[in-house]
């Protein structure tokens, strides 16, 4: 997919298939892999092979300075949320998008959308459409977030995102309504959501309980935050996972009743053009 569909020449370490229990090799191996990719002066992007768990273990030893000096896209989602947050905090824009292992599932339109961001062909004002408004309004600010459970687990650490004035994107997979409630409540009680400008919800997959759909739970929780909010973005743990830049400025439009235009998130910025 990388070589023949997108036109990239993939490079990887020979031990990419290593395993240490539930991790892709021990922390030292995975950190060496990261540093190798960052140091490769010919690399145009760092593309995560898969998600799962483990990236947050590396955060204390990841130095964003080389990527600030020579910006490139970091591409991925799910567990990669921890890396996105660390680099966004340093001022870099990153690309929330498919992992290498999920590329074959990507519909053609989503692949075209991904390539537009990868190669700087995204038109001004390109965006993601939502399906409904949760709370009407208009918000502008840096777009931050990712998988809700990862954001919650980083609460109280130096990598907890500073969300005052930001638009928060959220998605997740396999989390039941009560678990999603717990994650958002933890962030709220910790003050992490204070000053939030708006919320954009993506896909919440495989979490419905009998009589308690995940969408209904998230709609209630997010509506109570009192900021403009939309739902139904095609981004997350489903095949139609549209790419977009995190750490870049965005505009959230949550139309009220009677507005002819639908809910949407208008995007901008390339790698390195972050929130600062």
CATH topology of the largest domain: Glucose Oxidase, domain 1
Mean pLDDT: 94
Low-confidence stretches: none
Q: So what's the CATH class of the largest domain? A: Alpha Beta
Radius of gyration: 18 Å
* Total of helices: 8
| Distance N to C terminus | 34 Å
Domain module tally: 2
Can you count the beta strands? Answer: 12
Summed up, what is this model?
By secondary structure, the protein is of the alpha/beta class. The chain contains eight helices and twelve strands.
Quickly list its features.
276 residues, 8 helices, 2 domains, globular, alpha/beta
What's the helix and strand layout?
Layout: H1 2-6, H2 27-39, E1 45-47, H3 65-69, E2 73-76, H4 81-89, E3 94-96, H5 108-118, E4 127-129, E5 132-135, E6 137-147, H6 148-153, E7 167-173, H7 177-189, E8 198-205, H8 214-223, E9 229-231, E10 244-246, E11 249-254, E12 264-266
Parallel strand pairs: 1-2, 2-3, 6-7, 7-8, 8-9
Antiparallel strand pairs: 3-10, 4-12, 5-9, 6-11, 11-12
């Amino acid at each position: 997919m990388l070589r023949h569909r997108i036109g990239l020449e993939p490079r990887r370490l020979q031990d990419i298939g290593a395993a240490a229990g539930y991790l892709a090799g021990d922390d030292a191996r995975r950190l060496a892999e990261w540093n190798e990719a960052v140091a490769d002066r010919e690399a145009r992007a760092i593309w995560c092979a898969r998600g799962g768990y483990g990236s947050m273990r590396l955060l204390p030893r990841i130095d964003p300075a080389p990527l600030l000096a020579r910006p490139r896209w970091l591409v991925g989602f799910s567990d990669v949320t921890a890396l996105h947050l660390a680099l966004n905090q340093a001022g870099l824009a990153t690309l929330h998008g498919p992992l290498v292992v999920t590329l074959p599932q990507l519909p053609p339109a989503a692949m075209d959308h991904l390539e537009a961001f990868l190669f700087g062909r995204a038109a001004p004002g390109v965006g993601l459409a939502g399906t409904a408004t949760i709370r009407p309004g208009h918000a502008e600010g840096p777009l931050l977030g990712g998988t809700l459970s990862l954001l919650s687990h980083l609460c109280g650490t130096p990598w907890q995102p500073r969300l005052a004035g930001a638009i928060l994107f959220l998605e997740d997979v396999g989390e039941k309504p009560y678990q999603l409630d717990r994650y958002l409540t933890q962030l709220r009680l910790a003050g992490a959501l204070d000053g939030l400008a708006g919320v954009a919800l993506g896909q919440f997959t495989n979490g419905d309980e009998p009589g308690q759909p995940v969408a209904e739970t998230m709609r209630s929780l997010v509506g109570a935050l009192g900021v403009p909010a939309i739902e139904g973005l095609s981004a997350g743990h489903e095949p139609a996972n549209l790419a977009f830049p995190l750490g870049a400025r965005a505009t959230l439009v949550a139309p009220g009743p009677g507005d002819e235009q639908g809910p949407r998130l208008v995007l901008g910025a390339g790698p390195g053009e972050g929130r600062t």
